[in-house]
């Protein structure tokens, strides 16, 4: 079911739900500059068929949601996280499991930190505690400027947007190819069809590039990770060209009791051929939390034998590591 919600600041957000309204809810937060439909329909239905209410939504400045003038209404990740909180309040009506991809994972962290009553658990995909792309600098007292690693594929499009629609689509195909990476399969017809569908849904003017500015205005959260108090699964590719594996490891190391899964050939986004793997990882994380005997013990969630310190197992290219402080 599709509906719009209006935030307290008057921004309209397009939302869509899959599954039974009484089922345990899962909110999917896509990355910056990307529409909700980049969570594929079949993937959403699979999660719903497994017994969940699945909610996806278009960020402000994407898809069918409101477009803003960033000079008149500048915003950062905190504002985008507030949008997600409004979707939970108005569409779900209570706490949700939150799955965030890339910048969506950064918003998910802020949700858990600033509105913990709305978050039951986290799954952080290809994300980072620092929107600037830096990890080794101390937390800054002023907002950091985004490093090229974060916006290298989007910056040129923001500064000189392609005028011809087909040129814009070709540029986006190239961008998603970069995000998939060189070690995972790239199904060009799949991505092209998804990009063309997104182009048909875009409300003129196309202001998705405003998200790059939102990232550049956002402060790092590394020093706050220890305050996240919900079960957390971190999934990251060892071939991520945008946010290298160290970003995911920093999340898992900083969030108490977090479990991390590293995937050998995964880039920044999951190719369609590997979405069943992602579905199973998410459902495996959620199942113990929804069972009558489920708890918050990370060893119960991940199926690992945890004996203190770091525990690592490898199977079929997936490495599961429990490395967060307890």
Residue fraction in strands: 15-25%
Number of helical segments with 4 or more residues: 11
Superfamily (CATH H level) name? Alpha/Beta hydrolase fold, catalytic domain
Q: How big is the Rg?
A: 18 Å
> For the terminal residues, how far apart are their CA atoms?
40 Å
- Poorly predicted spans: 136-162, 294-316
Task: Produce a short descriptive summary.
With 326 residues, this protein is α/β, with parallel strands linked by helices. It has helices spanning 41-49, 77-92, 103-114, 148-151, 155-159, 165-180, 188-201, 210-216, 245-254, 275-290, 298-302; strands at 2-6, 12-18, 25-29, 53-57, 96-101, 119-125, 232-237, 259-263, 311-315, 318-322. A hairpin with a 2-residue loop joins β9 and β10.
Structural overview:
- By secondary structure, the chain is α/β, with parallel strands linked by helices.
- The protein has one domain (2-322): Rossmann fold.
- 35% of the residues lie in helices and 17% in strands.
- It is built from eleven helices and ten strands.
- The chain has helices spanning 41-49, 77-92, 103-114, 148-151, 155-159, 165-180, 188-201, 210-216, 245-254, 275-290, 298-302; strands at 2-6, 12-18, 25-29, 53-57, 96-101, 119-125, 232-237, 259-263, 311-315, 318-322.
- Strands 1-2-4-3-5-6-7-8-10-9 form a ten-stranded mixed β-sheet, with helices on both faces.
- Strand 1 and strand 2 (12-18) form a beta hairpin.
- Helix 2 crosses helix 3 and helix 6 (165-180) packs across helix 7 (188-201).
- The longest helix is centred in the N-terminal third of the chain and has 16 residues, at 77-92.
- The radius of gyration is 18 Å and the shape is globular.
- Residues 136-162 and 294-316 have low confidence and may be disordered.
């Amino acid at each position: 079911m599709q509906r719009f919600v209006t935030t307290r600041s008057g921004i309209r957000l397009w939302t869509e739900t899959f599954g039974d309204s009484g089922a345990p809810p899962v909110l999917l937060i896509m990355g910056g500059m990307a529409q909700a439909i980049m969570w594929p329909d079949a993937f959403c239905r699979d999660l719903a068929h497994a017994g969940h209410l699945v909610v996806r939504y278009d960020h402000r400045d994407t898809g069918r949601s409101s477009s803003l003038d960033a000079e008149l209404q500048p915003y950062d990740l905190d504002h985008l996280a507030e949008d997600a909180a409004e979707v939970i309040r108005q569409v779900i009506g209570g706490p949700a499991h939150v799955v965030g991809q890339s910048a969506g994972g950064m918003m998910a962290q802020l949700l858990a930190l600033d509105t913990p009553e709305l978050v039951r658990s986290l799954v952080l995909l290809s994300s980072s505690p620092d929107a600037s792309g830096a990890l080794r600098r101390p937390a800054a007292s002023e907002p950091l400027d985004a490093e090229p690693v974060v916006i290298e594929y989007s910056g040129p499009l923001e500064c000189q947007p392609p005028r011809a629609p087909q040129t814009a689509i070709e540029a986006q195909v190239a961008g998603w190819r970069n995000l998939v990476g060189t070690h995972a399969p790239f199904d060009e017809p799949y991505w092209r069809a998804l990009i063309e569908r997104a182009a048909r849904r875009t409300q003129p003017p196309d202001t998705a590039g405003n998200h790059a500015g939102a990232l550049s205005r956002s402060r790092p959260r590394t020093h706050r990770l220890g305050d996240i108090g919900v079960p957390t699964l971190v999934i990251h590719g060892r071939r991520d060209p945008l946010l290298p594996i160290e970003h995911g490891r920093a999340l898992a190391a900083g969030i108490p009791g977090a479990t991390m899964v590293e995937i050998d050939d995964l880039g920044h986004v999951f190719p369609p051929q590997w979405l069943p793997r992602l579905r199973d990882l998410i459902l495996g994380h959620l199942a113990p939390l929804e069972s009558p005997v489920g708890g918050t013990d990370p060893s119960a969630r991940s199926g690992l034998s945890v004996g203190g310190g770091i525990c690592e197992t490898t199977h079929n290219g997936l490495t599961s590591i429990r490395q967060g402080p307890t």
